[in-house]
Every structure is written in C-alpha cells, then in structure tokens.
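Figure S4 source data
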Amino acid sequence: MPMLLASTFTVLIFASPSQAGNSDWTKTPGGSVRLIIDNPEKGASEVRGAVQINLDPGWKTYWREPGDAGVPPELALTQDGNIKSSSLGFPAPHRFEDGGSKWAGYKKSVALPVVLTLTDPSKPAHLKGHAFLGICEAICIPVTAEFDIPIDNSPTDALTKTLVSDAFAALPGKASTSFGVKSAVRKDDHVKVTVQVPADQPQTDLFVAGEGGVTFGMAKLKSHEATSAVFSVPVLSGKDKKAVALNYTLVQGENAVSGKVEASE
C-alpha cells in the first residue's frame, strides 16, 4: 500500500470564489477537493450533495475500507447547524496492487454522494466542518478540505444539480437474489462469502467494509463456477466478535450492486 506521509500537510485554496452552496476548491498535490450542495425544497428533511475529488493522472484515492494502513474518506461536522446526521456514499471501487499490498480505491476523479438529515426541516441549516481523505501517488498525503456552507431553499444552479444527480446515479444498485451475496460464514479470522452473479463472466470482484470496530482486508477469489463465486475475506480487527456485519459491493464487468449481510460462525 502506498506509504502514508506522516508530516503535516498544509492545503492551499484557489483564489477564485465559490458558488452559492459550494465550498472553495482545496488544492492538493495530485488534485483538488470540494463539497457541493443541492439546496432542498421547503420542508424537505434530507439534503443531497457530493464531495468532488479531482485527481491528476497517476494519482489515486481510497474507498471506504482501505485495509490496515489507508485513509478512508470521512465527513466531519464541527457544529450542529440544524443537521442531525450525515452519510457518505461510494461508487464501485477498483482493486490496486502496489508491491505486495492490495487495496480498494479510485484511479480517476470521483464524486462521493452526501446525504444530510435535518433536525428541523422548517428551518435553514448550516454545514460547517471538513472532509478528510488520502490522495496517493508513490506516497499518500492526508488532505483536509474545509467547508462552511449555508443551506436554505434558494434555487441551486443547474450545473450543481447535475453534478449531484450524477454522483448518486453512479452508485451501485441494490443487491438481489440473482446479483448479490448468497451466504457469509465466519471461520476463525476469515469469512467465506458465496455470491450469485447474473452472467458467467470472469470479471467478478468483491469489496467488503466493516462497522463497529471490525475491519476487513481485500477479498480473495477462491472459485468461480457459472453464475456463482466464492471469496475469502480476512478479518483484520474485531476478531473477538463472533458475528460480524459485511457492507459489500459486488462488481461484475461494468455492473455493480451493494448490500449488507451478517456473518456468523
């Protein structure tokens, strides 16, 4: 895995002003980052947005489960601002091999969808905080992109609406019985995951993320027959837990689905 730069990195901001509902671009080596917001209609309880990550050629960033030494993207709010909760979404990642390490991430510019839940939909909100992520070439640089955005019912410009809509459209579909995890069985420090896929194709991959203190390594394909495949997923932390939850993205060719499954011994 690319080495993480331990020293503090000071980000630079572009001089150009941001549009209403969008943060300034945070300039970094290898790219730039900003947060955009699609202002909600009056009375709506949820607000949609996206963390835009522009990457220069040769640079990469991490998926939600980076393994044992990566930097997962995070969204942190520094004040209430009438926002009850926030969540990040993730398009299907790519598998990378750097030396002897394997990890999941993105090799091209990517937009991570954001969903904000308002405490009181009848009142304006204020989004203040930062996005934290790693941008990697030979080494990985931790990046903090700050934002301070008022949220009201004023009209959102057409470009921002399109960018946010495209970010959500790029998310994996919902897993089903014909395309998803069929079973997950925990055995010692590994989970055996059997998946069902719609076509007999070799380009099948599985990416797994944990929760509640459980982290997973990269899934390894053990067998592939017709429309099913078996993966072995190492448990990196939380090995003392008998049952673990796997948030997964299953990819076959250009198609991907996401879901969640419980694995027990």
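Figure S5 source data
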Amino acid sequence: MKNLVKLGFAALMTIASINVTAQNKNEDRENSILWEVTGNGLSKPSYITGTCHIMCSKDFEIKPKVFKALEKSESFVMEINYMDPTEMTALQKMFQTNKKISDQLTPQEAKELDQILTEYGTNLKNMDTSSSQALYALISMKAVPCPQTEIKSYEIELMQAALKQKKNINGLEKVEDQLISINKAYDLKEVIKQLKMGKEYESLLQRMVNAFKKEDVESVYNLFKNDKFMNDKQEKAMLTDRNKNWAEKMPEMMKKESSLFAVGGAHLMGENGIIKLLRSKGYTVKPISSL
C-alpha cells in the first residue's frame, strides 16, 4: 500500500501544478468545500468535497464535516482510484517516455531548458528520459513553500481514513483518461513555458490555499482560469470535458451507494462545473456548513 500511496502522491503533484492559476472576482457566491446531493430518485444523500490536492502541513486541515460525510457514505471516490494496482502501474508509466526530451528540442531549446531546470535543482541530463508530465510535476515541488516531508495530500489522507472505515474505494476516471487530457492541454513546449514561470506559481499557490482554507471555492475556480496560465483549449481539456464525463458517471455511482466524491476544488464551480451539471440533471445540490 505504501508504494501505491507514493505513486498517488506523485500524480497529485502533477495535477496540482497544472491546477494552479490566478484571478479573482467579487460577486454573490454560493461557497463551501462540502456539498450534499439529493433528489432525483436517490435513496440516500451523497456528498462532494472540493480539495486542494497538496498543501504544507502548517496549512493542512480537513474539516470535521468532511469526515462526517465520509462516515455517512458507503464509498469514497477520487479522480483516480489510487488503490487499483492496474491504475498505479499506468501512473508509473505516465512519468516515463521512450523518446528523450532533448530529441524533441533544438540544441538551443535544450540548452535553455537545461538552464531552467537548474532553478528546480536538477538538469536536462537527469530528466531527459522523463515525460513532460514529470517535468510539470517539478512546478508544484517548487511552488509548495515547505520541504517535501511536510507536504500533505488531501486525497491520500481521506483515502486512508476511508480504508480504516472499510469504505469502497473508486475513481471517476482512468490514468489513461487523465493523460489524454493533460496531453491535449500541455505539449512539451507549453510545459517549458510554464516552467519559466516557476516563481510566479509560488505566490499563486499560496493564494489558492488561502481561498481554499476560507472555503471560497468560487475564488479557487477563478484562480484556475487566468489566461496567462490557461487558454481556452487547456480549460476545455482540463476542466470542462472532464467535468462532463464525471457528471455522466456520478448518477449511477450515487444510485448504487451513497458516496463521498473528492475532486479538485476548481471542478465544482462555473457554468460547466460539477454542481451546475448535476443540478441540470435534476439533483438538489446544496452547500453544507455543518453535519
């Protein structure tokens, strides 16, 4: 299990780096990190919790109401099922490549990337056989303002609690699905572009964490959408398409058993967010202040 948790944590590092962007809005908001889903033929309520994939231990907290929602649920559902050995094998391959990074770049581009990577404590020689997703994971490692030993994963902590309670563990998508989404959004050149902005990610991640701690998921969503870090094509691949796929799968899962879904906070809000998508299907989805 320890190896599965490590692989899952590595995936969350990649996902977290892709999910950090910036902007804010002042408007009337319907905010909570925990939402209850009822109606439309469900015999029991299910719950959705927004997550901040990785945080420093000093900032880390899972609200008591989220643990209570887990207790009330029969299954715990993450974006990916980190307890599935097949998925973890696929995840390990996600960070590997058969084609060297340097072979995909001109000599000048390779030299520039090598210089960029020194700011991340490594070099192109060490990373040359890694995938672009592994390169992207470096962003979150640099952005999180604490040693790796002090980094906590929201999903992994909840998963471990779910296992102690003998809950069923499931996933909304496969590693292959996620890899397709990432590749649609970020090719190697785009990854290098993002690596150049590494220092900016540090302050952006802290803003995201601050919003999350206040349960301001509307700001988390808006932080995601700054066009400096994410264009329309990337938003469609990383948010809209995945949200729609998940919203198609969730009804059957909720009908089968009461579930707590844990997904990145940016997936909740917006016109194509999970909350509006489920409401459009006839479900009552309401923010929960306490349980």
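Residues 2-96+131-287 form one domain. The beta strands are 34-38, 46-51, 54-56, 75-78, 151-153, 168-171, 259-264, 284-287.
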